Amino acid sequence: MGLLGNMKFRHRLAAVAVFVMTSFGIYLYLPAEVTQLELQSQHKRMLMGRSFGSQMKYASENAPDMCQLTRANHHANISSLDLYFNAEYNLKSDGEWELPMPSVDYRKVQNPKRLNVVLVPHSHNDPGWLKTVNEYFSDQTRHILNNMVNKLTQFPKMTFIWTETVYFSMWWNELDDAVKVHVRRLIRRGQLEITLGGWVMPDEASTHYVSVIDQLIEGHQWLWENLGVRPENSWSIDPFGYSGTMPYLWLSAGMSNMVIQRVHQAIKSSLIQQKALEFNWRQMWDAKGSTDIFCHIMPYMLYNIKYTCGPSPFACVHFDFRHIPGDFSESRAREITNETLHESAELLYNQYRSKSFNFRYNTILVPIGDDFRYDKEEEWDQQYENYEKLIQYMNSKSEWNINVQWGTLQDYFQLTKQEHTNQKLSGSSEEFPVLSGDFFPYSDRDSEYWTGYYSTRPFDKYFSRDVQSTLQAADMLNTLNYIFYRSWNLNSDLKFFQHSSFLQTARRALGLFMHHDAITGTSKEFVVEDYEQYLLRAYNSSQEVIKLTIQSLLSKGKVESPVVFRPETVRTTYNTLPQKQVIAVQGYGTTVAFFNPLAQARRQMVHLLVNSQFLDVLSYSHEIIPSQISPVWHKEEDATVSDDIFELTFLVEIQPFSILPFVLYKKNHQTVSAYSSTITVVNTEQLAVSALVNFKQNRPEPHRTKPITVDNKVIQLTFDARTGSLLQLLDMASGNVTELNLSFLFYKSQGSGAYLFYPSGQPTSLFPNIPVIRVSEGPLVTCVEISYQPYITHRVTLYHHPPHLTSAIFIENVLSMSTLKNKEVIMRLHTDINNRDLSFFTDQNGFQFIRRRTNPNQRVQANYFPMTSAVLLEDDVRRLTLLSAQPHGAASLDDGQLEVMLDRQLLFDDNRGMGEGVNDNKPTVSKFVIMVEHRSSPKWSSSHYSSLSLQAMSFNDMLQQPLLTYYTTIDSEVFFRSITPLATPLSCDLSIVSLRSLVTGNLNYNGTSVILHRRGYDCDFPQPDLQCQPSETELSFDNLFQEFSFSNIYETTLTHTVLKRPVNPKEILNISPMELMAFHVQF
């Protein structure tokens, strides 16, 4: 072990300290020029040598099935990309999109075919919008569900569907056991169907698939435990556009059919012409049809009765029989009497027949409901009694050949598929078409596109992604804590109960925010504040679990109380940005513990705020490692350096799912291991640096016109000295230059609101003044910070080590919209990449990529698309990848151009129901990574989907699952140990989406959710510095968790409500590219 290895810990520290002090004493007596030379030489040795740990590089041996995947095209006969580009955008005189209409008066048709009509009563309950979730529950939802039990019992023919589990669980907790038994009976009888069954009906533009799965598991687990229900059909009628990812998730969770509504009316028109409103929705990578799920699109504008009985809203309003004194209503319905029965039935019959014109088969779905309907007992009576009269009369008219019935979605899909089967047997069947892609953007009227909400209230969008990563890490640590305690023969029941309570609070709060009026930013301001309070509780609850488990695991269960670890980043209030804590570095040592939530090893630079510029960093292997001290600028001043807060940067090399401690030691002087940055300021005459601060300073350059260049020996960046714009990137090995021309601009609103993006023209530059530019350079990291006061602080970071980080540009913006009234701010890149036909790719929910194509015949707002985490711009040779830590709207409106909307301040409502503008803007952070990659050989692909390179995937992991940092100033050797639960890192393309302990209603352990995702990657880009194996070949539970034993393992549906098959721990898991596999594991 060597001399140091045989010493006790405190003796090793003393030896290291003596060595450092001796070195520093020699350093003091060297001549200045020799000292500087030797210092640089020492840094070079430390940076190039073993102090950085082993250089983990893997051969770029791509998996053949992955490369075939990325080179294929979609496998469907309808592509949404073609639909949007080729649709006829015809308008009616009232501004609504025109739909094909049947020219037949069906009342005069002789011997019509048999028509089945399924009436489905429903009530759409938003968990927050114009009221908070609790206000809606108290005022309306509780009454709807109480009425449901009473009236379905009173009317045994009547049916009802329900979707939002968050409300059902709130109501269930108030019920007597006798009522619960009755509810279960209604479900068994088929009168009540639970559809979709997630915690909420999620938005599909801004949500990340990790959070969508998490809220889906929470809802399905609750339903299975309390109702014995597994949803078979999805009902998602109110999200403002639909992602291609959700059908895959719904199918993986055990659903077979789905209903959607808010699709661009011009796209519906195209589908109607092809009789394709019902289709099998297939994933673009799927060549076999194994991902097909049957989808029904409602043909008309909305899901309320005015638009569901048939093509004429003026006719349909006569069949909404709700009449409550004091209610506003568009209804023109009258009570059905013997005198009005024939006339009303004939009018409704014609609407039903006209609606059937849109579909291949003679079975139609007629929803009867709207937002928060059936909250009054009278409505149940009014709707049921009047429709019953109509049903009996129409069914008795043999010449009409119609069968109208109450039903659920399950009834509708069974009838439709039975009719398809019957016709297939008779040889007259038409097969349902196959569609791939998505349904963005959404529009309900001429030029009024719902593309603003992609970027509305980005503070909350970033907040939710922050909560997602924190909760995901807390789940992992809670599970690790549970299984380690079992292996140590320690009882963890009480701790597990405590942790599970925190995590349930966090999970349900984040799940609530996935609602399509929450993460979208489309709720009233006081409701948004309520959501933010939920998010804050989720964040703090997750952090509570993390610090408890880190302390327990590092101390091997010996120190559970008092809790001495604290998070390095905190959120103190619901409406302010997260704040990095200033770590007090002690002479006896401050322990900083890092947790890696990835299933791959990572080598990453970390940035900490510390209270001393003189310190050493001791790694877990007892080496003093290189570090860099950089300035922290006073926010109130352009070029004033703090004299008591410093930024410390050093490299952390950490295994998957590991906890690794480092120790910071305060010193009285600069050490050879800590390098101080060199500071340069441009466009100001003042550089205020205290004499006590040890930074090298270049003379201020108030009138510089020469471009500013910085580099890390791999890439060189050039900035315009007068505007601060990032102009270009130079690949220093090849000499290739890529123009970037990064700028900030704003659109002026003409009719924008929380939902709509409706600009008045082309964007204008945001900054008329010359910004102050601050540059700090060192051997580990170089930062260029541009201060566009009072709007934006724009920080660009280059890393010099380790090698795999050196090819990327890291960007962080802090934007304040307080003085930007009725403006929509964008960050634009104008490159020299020749993206043919203005096409580019955006990701869908962080799961996959889809090609977008800008339509020059449409306005700007029609060419904006949701970007959940990334966008790709490419030509035959190069690809620019823009990765994002938070969702935005994105567009490519000109050759080589890419823009991302950062925030929106809107004075006025856009008449979509919210009733107010967006005026509650807060300072908001946005984080990006820019990469420019060169193909192995020139190639242009016309594929409708794409994937990240493996290198870009690793950067995206850094953004989505950041390294977590916790620290303590308590001096104790008991925390100086590492936790490494995985026997081996997973390959680059494999992700552990879930390592979450499931619980019963009493918060007892109920097994562990393990969800694996084999992510698609693009094989066309070389991967010179991979830190992981490209593809896994021998993955099994035995070689993944070698230290732990299993009671049983089952492959399951995505939400673990159906056991598919038992799995042997030694069995090799074969996961196809892009696919998810879910397991229920008992440790």
UniProtKB/TrEMBL annotation:
<dbReference type="GO" id="GO:0000139">
    <property type="term" value="C:Golgi membrane"/>
</dbReference>
<dbReference type="Pfam" id="PF01074">
    <property type="entry name" value="Glyco_hydro_38N"/>
</dbReference>
<dbReference type="GO" id="GO:0004572">
    <property type="term" value="F:mannosyl-oligosaccharide 1,3-1,6-alpha-mannosidase activity"/>
</dbReference>
<keyword id="KW-0479">Metal-binding</keyword>
<dbReference type="InterPro" id="IPR037094">
    <property type="entry name" value="Glyco_hydro_38_cen_sf"/>
</dbReference>
<dbReference type="Pfam" id="PF09261">
    <property type="entry name" value="Alpha-mann_mid"/>
</dbReference>
<keyword id="KW-0472">Membrane</keyword>
<comment type="function">
    <text>Catalyzes the first committed step in the biosynthesis of complex N-glycans. It controls conversion of high mannose to complex N-glycans; the final hydrolytic step in the N-glycan maturation pathway.</text>
</comment>
<dbReference type="GO" id="GO:0046872">
    <property type="term" value="F:metal ion binding"/>
</dbReference>
<feature type="domain" description="Glycoside hydrolase family 38 central">
    <location>
        <begin position="448"/>
        <end position="535"/>
    </location>
</feature>
<dbReference type="InterPro" id="IPR050843">
    <property type="entry name" value="Glycosyl_Hydrlase_38"/>
</dbReference>
<feature type="transmembrane region" description="Helical">
    <location>
        <begin position="12"/>
        <end position="30"/>
    </location>
</feature>
<dbReference type="InterPro" id="IPR011013">
    <property type="entry name" value="Gal_mutarotase_sf_dom"/>
</dbReference>
<keyword id="KW-0326">Glycosidase</keyword>
<dbReference type="Pfam" id="PF07748">
    <property type="entry name" value="Glyco_hydro_38C"/>
</dbReference>
<dbReference type="InterPro" id="IPR028995">
    <property type="entry name" value="Glyco_hydro_57/38_cen_sf"/>
</dbReference>
<dbReference type="GO" id="GO:0030246">
    <property type="term" value="F:carbohydrate binding"/>
</dbReference>
<keyword id="KW-0862">Zinc</keyword>
<dbReference type="GO" id="GO:0006013">
    <property type="term" value="P:mannose metabolic process"/>
</dbReference>
<keyword id="KW-0812">Transmembrane</keyword>
<keyword id="KW-0378">Hydrolase</keyword>
<comment type="similarity">
    <text>Belongs to the glycosyl hydrolase 38 family.</text>
</comment>
<dbReference type="InterPro" id="IPR011330">
    <property type="entry name" value="Glyco_hydro/deAcase_b/a-brl"/>
</dbReference>
<dbReference type="InterPro" id="IPR027291">
    <property type="entry name" value="Glyco_hydro_38_N_sf"/>
</dbReference>
<dbReference type="InterPro" id="IPR013780">
    <property type="entry name" value="Glyco_hydro_b"/>
</dbReference>
<dbReference type="GO" id="GO:0006491">
    <property type="term" value="P:N-glycan processing"/>
</dbReference>
<dbReference type="InterPro" id="IPR011682">
    <property type="entry name" value="Glyco_hydro_38_C"/>
</dbReference>
<protein>
    <recommendedName>
        <fullName>Alpha-mannosidase</fullName>
        <ecNumber>3.2.1.-</ecNumber>
    </recommendedName>
</protein>
<keyword id="KW-1133">Transmembrane helix</keyword>
<dbReference type="InterPro" id="IPR015341">
    <property type="entry name" value="Glyco_hydro_38_cen"/>
</dbReference>
<dbReference type="InterPro" id="IPR000602">
    <property type="entry name" value="Glyco_hydro_38_N"/>
</dbReference>
